[in-house]
Specification:
Length: 114
């Protein structure tokens, strides 16, 4: 179980916003709590926690709820390498200044006497 007191405030805000967005999406679809919970294979209490952004709810339950609402397509891009600015910067910093062939990789001289 996650210690809610140890969670950084910005992360709490992100989860709370996600929960509110899920709640708004459900309401825009005119979907009752009981129906969304049933389709997501969770109980109403868990859905209530999701809509409040509770960090103790499993990521799988959040993902299934988003799937039922038709909003799961972007989950695959959350940590996509192409959008990882910090990781890309670190990779760029590690690029070598020069690249040399090792002695084993150098091409052999050909005899010009032929």
């Amino acid at each position: 179980m996650i210690d809610k007191g140890a969670m950084p405030v910005p992360l709490k805000r992100v989860l709370r916003k996600l929960g509110q967005d899920i709640r708004d999406a459900r309401r825009r679809r005119r979907m009752p709590v009981a129906l969304l919970a049933e389709r997501a294979s969770i109980n109403r209490v868990t859905l209530g926690k999701i809509e409040k952004g509770d960090p103790g709810v499993s990521f799988g339950n959040y993902a299934m709820t988003l799937f039922v609402l038709g909003l799961s397509d972007r989950l695959a891009d959350l940590a996509d390498v192409r959008t990882d600015a910090t990781g890309l910067e670190l990779d760029e910093e590690r690029l070598p200044e020069r690249i040399r062939l090792s002695s084993a990789g150098k091409p052999k001289r050909q005899d010009k006497a032929l």
